[in-house]
């Protein structure tokens, strides 16, 4: 839309269903590149996409022409289909319902980028659950831990 200007930086975090450790290193980057393509084809800027075996972080320069929920729905649906078509996992792959979305100012871009880039190192000392609850607490988001994750 002409005359509309924005600068919205959002980190989105979501997990594999039941937080299973199935995003394996040999093909994980292919999935992250696929996610980047979806984000950019929807008109947003993909700053970095990274994660570990059980979850993903997206750092996006979001355009206000599309809601975060619609974008993440599309990313999750399309990547689930991609992973299943490629048969990267036994059985059916799917993402857990929901996600966390956290906003940042321009001055935080490098710190958030470095944090997401170093996920493997970061998760040597902290579980995904600990990380996610820390985000919710840091951003003052009320939550009940018993509803955060789906369990088998």
Automatic annotation (TrEMBL):
GO terms for biological process: DNA transposition. InterPro entries: Transposase_17 (IPR002686), Transposase_17_sf (IPR036515). Coiled coil: none annotated. Transmembrane segments: none annotated. One of its GO terms (molecular function) is transposase activity. Residues 5-119 form the Transposase IS200-like domain. This is IS200/IS605 family transposase. It comes from Pseudochryseolinea flava. The gene is tnpA.
């Amino acid at each position: 839309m002409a005359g509309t200007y924005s600068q919205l930086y959002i980190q989105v975090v979501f997990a594999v269903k039941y937080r299973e450790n199935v995003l394996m290193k040999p093909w994980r980057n292919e999935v992250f590149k696929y996610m980047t393509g979806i984000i950019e084809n929807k008109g947003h800027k993909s700053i970095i996409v990274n994660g570990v075996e059980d979850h993903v972080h997206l750092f996006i320069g979001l355009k206000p022409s599309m809601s975060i929920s619609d974008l993440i729905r599309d990313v999750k649906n399309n990547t689930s289909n991609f992973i299943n078509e490629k048969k990267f996992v036994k059985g059916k792959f799917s993402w857990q319902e929901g996600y966390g979305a956290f906003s940042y100012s321009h001055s935080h871009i490098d710190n958030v980028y470095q944090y997401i880039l170093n996920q493997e190192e970061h998760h040597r000392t902290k579980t995904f659950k600990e990380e996610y609850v820390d985000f919710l607490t840091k951003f003052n988001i009320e939550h009940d831990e018993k509803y955060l994750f789906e369990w088998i």
